[in-house]
Amino acid sequence: MSTDVTAAVSITAPVVLQARLLSLRWEAEGVMSLEWVPADPAQTFPAFEPGAHIDLHLPNGLVRSYSLSNDARERNRYVVGVLKDHGSRGGSIWVHEQLRPGMVLSISAPRNNFPLRPSSETQVLVAGGIGVTPMLSMLRQLAAQNKPLDFVYCARTRAQAAFLSEIQTLVADHAHMTLRCHFDDEQSAPPNLKALLAGYTPNTHMYCCGPGPMLDSFESVCAELGYPHAHIERFTAKAVAASTTTNVCHVELQKSGRTIEVPPHLSVLDALIEAGMFPDHSCKEGVCGACETRIISGEVEHLDSILTKAEQAANKTMMICVSRCKSERVVLDL
Ligand code: FES
Known about the structure:
It is a single chain. The protein is 19% helix and 29% strand. It has 334 residues and is of the alpha/beta class. The strands form four sheets. Strands 4-3-6-1-2-5 form a six-stranded antiparallel sheet, with helices on one face. The protein has a five-stranded parallel sheet with strand order 9-8-7-10-11, with helices on both faces. Strands 13-12-18-14-16 form a five-stranded mixed sheet. FE2/S2 (inorganic) cluster is lined by residues 281-284, 286-291, 319, 321.
């Protein structure tokens, strides 16, 4: 995932908001949308950009990230879509079976690892299944700005395609927008991304959110077709080789003036927590970007699912929940 986000990690407890669930809405087979409003009606929510996500702090102790799907100009509500995942480790099942309107939960302020880039060309959004949620917010913004867009929506079946009629209406109302849908059961095959994405210029910005295999395929198709501006959002960690780092590292926290020893069995994040600090974090899997921290000096083994290869090679930031220190001393902007 390409990101322009600058480090937002603090060593104090991160901002948490109180939100009340106003409504739960059935959107498609297995998909509910959740509409959150500030628990205090006198408040508004922090602003967000399309592509952003929030964390829900569930009462069962789990923290789960969900992309915002509503209009980014709205400050009075956040809307997320949640797929009931039968391989769930307790997050989406709890949301579908226990969460009810009126309940108040803690949520994080929005974070964005998947922003729209400025472009005068047609932009291409490729959504796979529940990956449609950030795309819907992007679509709303591009429609409001009357920008050209091609939207590709893939799902296993039409019945599982959340927000489809809303997307169809938005695209139909805008002359410079197109929508192509692919439903596996109707075509008796998975989508042919190479065919769907052929014919654009190398300047085109391509965005994809969906299941891991689709993202892997999207990245290789974009490379093959010569599209350098390919942006993805993962909601599960990609498979990465196990860390090869076995040394004890000393992490110097430049702002706080402390140095923390990180043994090889601990992540930097866990070592900081053990030392009594509260760095912002959520997934602990290198997916959400909450713990992204600026590197001032030192070598790092990047094991996250967010930064592109070029961004990892640039070594400007690291996800301290999964990435490891290669050099004996690493200086971080904390
Ligand atoms: S906590 Fe999510 S990327 Fe580190």
